[in-house]
């Protein structure tokens, strides 16, 4: 746009005070200014059709920021029967309900907003809601196939025969593992009201129905929703993880009436976890005890590779399943915790895995029993000093039974920004292991 000052300068040129030439120049200058102003009005003031054409982008921008008023309206649960859930948090926790990616899917985003609002308002359990969000992000995240609302609805029509009149099924490692390995589609999905209305208008004879747990659910404020969406996106990033499992003698302790040992339950939890990880995750397995491999306290069973990688005629997932099943404990073995932890940390630290959550997961039922190993203080110092601030490696520790050194495991995890978890009873091992995988 031309500088108005330029016109004033040009219009200020001295002209003769008398005669038609001065008057003519004045009128020409004024006419030029009028034309420029008219052109500015035509091109700079939005017209009706331009304003309308801008609305979709504005809506998309609002949807990305979690604005419920433009993100497609309220969410609805679609299935062959009405949902029996009484809260949106319960819908979030229902393993029968398929979601989209909340950053892109209006219905899922609004479901998350309402579940968070209920948790903050006291209508739903906050811890259960947060755990469900993390579990969904970790096991589904950006690894699940990207399906639009229409595609998910069409899948329900083709594949779903089960009505969702029963109580919602809690999210579980087994169900997540099934979903990761290509199990049949779930029996319900969440879409926005606008998406359902559009679908229903084209398919008036559909057997699907849309319902909600209630019409007055509170929604999360924008800051809380954005935090949840960022957390989801972070947890959805692929893992690059090395799992180290204690094979010392104490892992042979019987913990069940059927004779199951700590190792048996740990193997079951690890097998579930192998199925839990999406295809794009990379996973490897070590076992450890004192002087397991010469002077080393650890042995690599499976190097870290993507679960979809080809290995000996199968996949990395197949190989890990076999290696987990082959795990045994040494009756006279002692726990070489500190040296193993440092070695596993350095192993992952030196592996190139951009864009992955580089992680070491250590499972043990005891404390360090290796007089020749580094000290705890030296271990903690090395973990902090050697950390890569640009692509850090976090350590997640899982204590199996009350015999695990909870304080030490917590210090090790916190030194790397990781988390520590303890399964105090045998029946807790699987749940604690899965919770550890979905921790931030």
Layout of strands and helices, then pairs:
Blueprint: H1 4-11, H2 20-44, H3 48-64, E1 75-79, H4 88-93, E2 97-98, H5 106-121, H6 126-139, H7 149-159, H8 173-180, E3 188-192, H9 193-202, E4 209-211, H10 222-235, E5 239-246, H11 262-276, E6 282-293, E7 296-306, E8 310-311, E9 314-315, H12 316-325, H13 337-349, E10 357-364, H14 376-385, E11 393-400, H15 406-414, E12 420-423, H16 429-437
Parallel strand pairs: 2-3, 5-6, 5-10, 10-11, 11-12
Antiparallel strand pairs: 1-3, 1-4, 6-7, 8-9
Describe the structure.
44% of the residues lie in helices and 16% in strands. The protein contains 16 helices and 12 strands. Strands 7-6-5-10-11-12 form a 6-stranded mixed β-sheet, with helices on both faces. It has a 4-stranded mixed β-sheet with strand order 2-3-1-4. Strand 6 and strand 7 (296-306) form a beta hairpin. The chain starts with a helix and ends with a helix.
